[in-house]
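Weekly modeling sync, notes
Attendees: S.R. (lead), two postdocs, one rotation student

Agenda item 3: backlog of single-chain predictions. S.R. asked that every request posted to the team notebook include the full sequence so nobody has to chase files. The rotation student volunteered to paste the first one in as an example of the format we agreed on. Action items at the bottom.

Example entry:
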Amino acid sequence: MTSLAESAYIYRDLPVGSSSGVGAWLLTLAPETGESTTVILPTRDLHHDPVPEADERLRDEGYRAVEWRSSGAERWVTDLEGLGGQ
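Predicted structure, as returned to the notebook:
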């Protein structure tokens, strides 16, 4: 099974917030084929990693997030694998 990290790149990873400070990360996975998958990852606030439901959402979209890393406002998903032979 090919790792998604080997066949895709992160096209956009933007914070989407509200005045309450509760936000989400809009993550678009853009495979080399040009097709993309967008998932919305909720956060408790704009400075924290996605809540556990985010991993569930990725699994619902057919991917598994193994590790999250953050650096300031940037979020990178590493070691994503497509499920079902994707």
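Discussion: group reviewed the output briefly. Helices lie at 4-7, 52-60.
Action items: rotation student to repeat for the remaining queue; S.R. to check formatting next week.
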